């Protein structure tokens, strides 16, 4: 186990070898697949990081069942795997042992921080939608999906981050931030999602600019741009920035030791929107990324703020 991982588990008081191994598994998933999320997590106090890794590990595990482009199993089989995971999740949260590392760590985290089990149930419901829903007509329709796939992630995180206001007051901006992150991912990954047979950008919003799934697929296949697509994506980027503005006040509602972490993730994900704009919205055939230089420019000041906040606490 890397020294940093050991230090985090020691700080969290996690001593059982099997439980430590489960958390290490989740940490490795976060480090390997969630570069932005993992970097932001490093700004939290050590004792809180394992819980964030557990939440990420579970979400990644479920998401890969439906989103792995290398998995060509029938949709019905993927749906059955999700159903099995949901049943196993329910048993594990009820205190029954499991051989799943991610569920072992998740159940421990949920118990330690009193995370409401319905947030995990709602998340699994949205994962099931990915097995049979291929598009969304309006933002209201998409909202049903992103509640479970994204808003609940913000709600799961709140007990770990801590708040300086009643938690109910901090929940709306926390949920909004999860949604903002998710829609940012939809904009960045629109080409890959088309390859999966899904489109998360609302058809009504696209149609206002003369765009439909066929045009997006054509742009993906030919690697060519279209001014109608550019205008539609610019509109959706502006919409997403408005969601970030609704979420921003929630950062100051968090405990001071947690603010640098969330501010870092906030700025890095906004940076993805900046990169989409810088690419002139040509994202159908490639995935834009925030550069390592930008990551460092955001993370290093955050690290300093985190150290100061910990010293004061």
What would you call the structural class? mainly alpha
Euclidean distance between termini CA atoms:
29 Å
Number of strands: 0
Backbone shape: globular
Radius of gyration: 19 Å
Number of distinct helices: 15
* Order of SSEs: HHHHHHHHHHHHHHH
Q: What about the largest sheet?
A: none
Beta-strand percent range: under 5%
Helical content class: over 70%
pLDDT < 50 stretches: none
Structure commentary:
The structure is a single chain. This protein is mostly helical. The chain is 73% helix and 0% strand. It has 15 helices and no strands. Helix 7 packs antiparallel against helix 8 and helix 9 runs parallel beside helix 14. The longest helix is centred in the middle third of the chain and has 23 residues, at 139-161. It starts with a helix and ends with a helix. 41% of the residues are buried. The mean pLDDT is 92.
Supply the key terms:
313 residues; mainly alpha; 15 helices; globular
Outline the fold blueprint.
Blueprint lengths: L2 H10 L4 H17 L1 H7 L7 H19 L7 H19 L7 H13 L4 H12 L9 H23 L5 H22 L1 H6 L7 H5 L5 H10 L4 H21 L8 H23 L13 H21 L1
Helix pairs in contact: 2-3, 2-4, 2-6, 3-14, 4-6, 4-7, 5-6, 5-7, 7-8, 8-9, 9-13, 9-14, 13-14, 14-15
Question: In short, what is this structure?
Answer:
The protein has 313 residues and is an all-alpha fold. It contains 15 helices and no strands. The protein has helices spanning 3-12, 17-33, 35-41, 49-67, 75-93, 101-113, 118-129, 139-161, 167-188, 190-195, 203-207, 213-222, 227-247, 256-278, 292-312.
């Amino acid at each position: 186990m890397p020294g940093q991982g050991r230090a985090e588990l020691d700080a969290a008081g996690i001593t059982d070898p099997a439980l430590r191994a489960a958390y290490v598994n989740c940490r490795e998933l976060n480090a390997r697949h969630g570069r932005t999320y993992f970097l932001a997590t490093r700004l939290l106090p050590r004792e809180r990081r394992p819980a964030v890794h557990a939440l990420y590990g579970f979400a990644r595990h479920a998401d890969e069942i439906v989103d792995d482009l290398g998995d060509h199993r029938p949709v019905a089989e993927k749906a059955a795997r999700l159903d099995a995971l949901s049943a196993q999740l329910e048993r594990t949260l009820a205190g029954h042992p499991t051989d799943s590392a991610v569920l072992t760590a998740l159940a421990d985290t949920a118990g330690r921080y009193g995370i409401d089990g319905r947030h995990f149930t709602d998340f699994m419901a949205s994962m099931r939608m990915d097995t049979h829903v291929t598009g969304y007509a309006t933002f209201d329709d998409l909202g049903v999906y992103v509640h479970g796939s994204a808003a609940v992630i913000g709600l799961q995180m709140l007990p770990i981050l801590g708040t300086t206001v009643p938690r109910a007051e901090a929940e709306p901006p926390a949920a909004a931030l999860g949604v903002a992150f998710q829609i940012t991912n939809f904009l960045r990954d629109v080409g890959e999602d088309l390859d999966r047979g899904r489109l998360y950008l609302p058809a009504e919003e696209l149609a206002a600019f003369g765009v439909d799934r066929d045009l997006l697929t054509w742009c993906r296949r030919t690697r060519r741009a279209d001014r109608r697509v550019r205008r539609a994506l610019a509109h959706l980027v502006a919409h997403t920035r408005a969601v970030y503005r609704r979420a921003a006040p929630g950062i100051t509602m968090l405990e001071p030791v947690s603010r640098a972490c969330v501010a870092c993730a906030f700025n890095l994900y906004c940076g993805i929107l900046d990169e989409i704009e810088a690419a002139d919205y040509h994202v159908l055939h490639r995935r834009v990324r925030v550069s390592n230089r930008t990551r460092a420019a955001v993370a290093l000041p955050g690290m300093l703020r985190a150290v100061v906040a910990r010293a004061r606490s």
